[in-house]
Design brief:
This protein is 35% helix and 22% strand. Strand 2, helix 2 and strand 3 form a beta-alpha-beta unit. It is built from 12 helices and 16 strands. Helix 10 crosses helix 12.
């Protein structure tokens, strides 16, 4: 029967909420290092240990490290681009000459990009087509209207990104997690099995070879190298949020089916994640489509279903877990 991984943040970081999660069969807690500070995590670990002692049972902690992402710059105020609007994109902050000029912190962009390439911002919500390439900037054209705020993540589908596998921040976060006995670690925006090998070597050198590595399949490169990544990882996550910024959205279900099947045939654990009960961030019941999504993930023999915003920032985190448990139980009847 599939288990539930709950992402923890202010919606669920109290003793009462952690107890409620445990009572609803949540045994793995995800900490997202893209947002969580060490001070906050320190308090959470302390609270969770008290809950474990009180319940005479334990949680496993899953540290989701940030990885080598590409982002836009800081903005004084949000900038809105209209559909069809053209604007400059630069990699040197000094060349930002007006509010519509977009800075991207990837120094190889001007060399790697090509006219006709599609860039996706905010995990695909905003698409930009490259229509011109110059010595010190490129020109992008907005494919839809969108308002950009500071530090938005950029996906560059089909490009081989030249970034380190593990950043210095990642290393600091991992060492902090090791100190608090984490059980799992995953690396965001990695590109090959070499990145996983680098992470495993870092764990080994810090006397933490027991920590399991979760490979998040969230890019075209990882799909292309799926077999070797499955071999290199201890578990695999179908990370649908960033994956849909890299591949046509209509292919996500077939990619999920393929990934889950390949991982299970290698007798490794697989997690299905992202927007499984997204509506319950603001509503006390999910949509019928969300219920069906969870149900079919169970039928595919997913080992874990992961809740992200639903339990980290939603209005109904415990109710969400209760609903997911009921759907899992229903799906179990058919496998």
């Amino acid at each position: 029967m599939a288990g539930i991984i709950a992402t923890i943040w202010p919606a669920t970081d109290t003793k009462e909420k952690l107890i409620a999660l445990h009572q609803n069969w949540v045994r793995i807690l995800r900490l997202n290092c893209s947002h969580a500070t060490h001070d906050w995590m320190e308090k959470l670990f302390s609270t969770a240990r008290k809950v474990e002692k009180e319940l005479s049972n334990s949680f496993a902690f899953f540290l989701d490290i940030k990885g080598p992402g590409i982002r836009t710059g800081d903005l004084e105020k949000p900038v809105t681009y209209e559909k069809g609007e053209k604007f400059k994109i630069v990699v040197d902050q000094k060349l930002v000459d007006n509010p519509k000029t977009m800075f991207i912190d990837y120094s190889h962009l001007l060399k790697d990009i090509y006219v006709g390439a599609i860039m996706r911002l905010d995990s695909g919500v905003f698409s930009i087509k490259v229509v011109e390439k110059n010595k010190d900037h490129i020109v992008g054209q907005a494919m839809n209207k969108f308002t950009v705020i500071s530090k938005r993540h950029i996906n560059l589908p089909w490009l081989k990104i030249k970034l380190p596998g593990i950043t210095e921040k990642d290393k600091e976060d991992i060492l902090f997690g090791i100190k608090h006995n984490i059980s799992y670690v995953s690396l965001s925006f990695a590109r090959s099995a070499k990145d996983l090998a680098e992470l495993r070597e870092f764990l080994y050198k810090n006397q933490s070879a027991h920590v399991k590595i979760i490979a998040k399949i969230e890019s075209q490169e990882w799909l292309d190298n799926l077999s070797e990544i499955i071999r290199a990882a201890d578990a695999v996550m179908v990370a649908r949020w960033d994956l849909w910024a890299e591949v046509p959205i209509e292919t996500i279900p077939s990619h999920q089916l393929n990934i889950v099947g390949k991982v299970k045939r290698k007798w490794k654990k697989v997690i299905v994640a992202t927007q499984m009960l997204e509506t319950m961030m603001n509503n006390c019941i999910p949509t019928r489509a969300e219920v069906t999504d969870v149900f079919y993930a169970v039928l595919q023999w997913a080992d874990y279903l992961m809740l992200s915003g639903e339990t980290s920032a939603g209005k109904y985190p415990i109710e969400t877990v209760e609903v997911m448990n009921r759907i899992i139980a229903e799906g179990k009847k058919f496998i």
